[in-house]
């Protein structure tokens, strides 16, 4: 746990290894099953990225977000390598181009999923702490603005 400052809640640290495994294993299994393409690969990649973003710490979400596209691409390429290990070089080049082009929409969806989880966690943490902005009549000099924890008047 982090030391708590004034008005801060302690943040429970989650092991990064668990989030890393969740980020890697579902896309890996899906790539091995589907060859790095198709609905199974989409589902496995999204499940892995969103699951890892949900399991890690709030700062760790941004590591998951930036790591998701390369992980998805590497798993797609690994799925191709396992599926077509005996293909000739010309067929391998064509298949490689297809897999890389097919992985881009999956990488984008995985990135958006991780960003959505990060944004939801940030918003929920702010609501739990009671941070908001309230505008109302100030203390005698016009308009006052309250920012911060409810009940702490500033302005």
TrEMBL record:
Q: Which residues form the DUF6542 domain?
A: 14-127
What residue intervals traverse the membrane? 16-33, 39-56, 61-82, 102-120
Pfam families in the cross-refs: DUF6542 (PF20177)
* Keywords tagged on the record: Membrane, Transmembrane, Transmembrane helix
InterPro entries to which the protein is assigned, alphabetical: DUF6542
Protein name (record) = DUF6542 domain-containing protein
| Protein's organism | Streptacidiphilus jiangxiensis
